[in-house]
DNA sequence: GGTGAAACGTAGGCCGT
DNA sequence: ACGGCCTACGTTTCACC
């Protein structure tokens, strides 16, 4: 079992903020020797608490100039139509997130594209062509005062 | 200027997926020597294309059992009331993201808490006590068929 | 959980293109 | 301006206490 104690918690906090910190520096920060620290990190990775590591890229500098959240409602609510929709959405690179939500619509998507023109393209060519989709509402992101995941 | 060429692009793609890959392995993957690769990564970090690195943690295994998106509308639309709202929201640990969006409401928040009880607490004790807030709508996340940021 | 040592990776000077 | 080579130094990793 992987019960997270106080030190694990500190390790996770540090790694969540500085994913590429050296094990040595991490060990020092949490007050452990390098080997003990490494063993804990390895255990956290193996047990799935730590899923992986990623570089956080600047959206603007990597050509993302337009971000929007889109709610999507399906006309048919069968399992098959949901799976068909999710299959297409999962393949679409513009869709960074797809959440199944409660409320009057089924899905909330996060879309990241270069510009408004690219979004229009996505809207008509991808969303517009899906037979299951009956309602689309776009919320353009004008800014993100807080974004811990970015 | 930092113009991203084909190799930079490959580097970024690899680091976005495997943030803790060694420079040596990264160099091999993109077909560069270790020093050339390291220099490119350093340049990408310095120029801000790479903002940082983070460990991706499993929500369930770190005690996040309830995720919701919440739209918030402000009664007053002055700059001051927006800033006051953002100040409180930025400090709240439950709020992982706060986006300023177009549409009939001003904000879209992502909330992560342990359970429904904690969410109720946040809803009434934080959101409910902000004088600027005039409309709150919660969309509980039941699943995320795709989440590239997680 | 800590120690130590071998294996491995990083970082930077230097030179060629 | 950019890539490859070499090397001193730091870090990781693992058997052992």
From TrEMBL, chains A, B:
- Tell me, what is one Gene Ontology molecular-function annotation carried by this entry? sequence-specific DNA binding
Q: Might you name a Gene Ontology BP term for this protein?
A: response to L-leucine
> Key word tRNA processing present in the record?
no
Keywords of the record:
Activator, DNA-binding, Transcription, Transcription regulation
The cellular component terms of Gene Ontology attached to this UniProt record, alphabetical and capped at eight, are: cytosol
CDD domains reported for this sequence: HTH_ARSR
Known InterPro entries for this protein? ArsR-like_HTH, AsnC-type_HTH_dom, Dimeric_a/b-barrel, Tscrpt_reg_AsnC-like, Tscrpt_reg_AsnC/Lrp_C, Tscrpt_reg_HTH_AsnC-type_CS, WH-like_DNA-bd_sf, WH_DNA-bd_sf
Protein name per UniProt: AsnC family transcriptional regulator
**Organism name:** Alloyangia mangrovi
Provide the taxonomic classification: Bacteria, Pseudomonadati, Pseudomonadota, Alphaproteobacteria, Rhodobacterales
């Amino acid at each position: 079992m992987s019960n997270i104690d106080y030190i694990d918690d500190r390790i996770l906090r540090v790694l969540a903020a500085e994913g590429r910190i050296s094990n040595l520096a991490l060990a020092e920060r949490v007050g452990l020797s390098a080997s003990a620290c490494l063993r804990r990190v390895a255990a956290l990775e193996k047990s799935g608490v730590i899923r992986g590591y990623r570089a956080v890229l600047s959206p603007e500098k990597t050509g993302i100039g337009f971000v929007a959240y889109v709610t999507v409602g399906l006309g048919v609510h069968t399992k098959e139509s949901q799976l068909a929709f999710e299959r297409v959405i999962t393949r679409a690179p513009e869709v960074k997130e797809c959440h199944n939500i409660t409320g009057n619509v089924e899905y909330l998507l996060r879309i990241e594209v270069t510009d408004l023109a690219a979004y229009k393209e996505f809207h008509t060519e991808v969303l517009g062509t899906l037979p299951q989709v009956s309602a689309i509402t776009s919320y353009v992101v004008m800014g993100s005062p807080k974004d811990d995941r970015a």
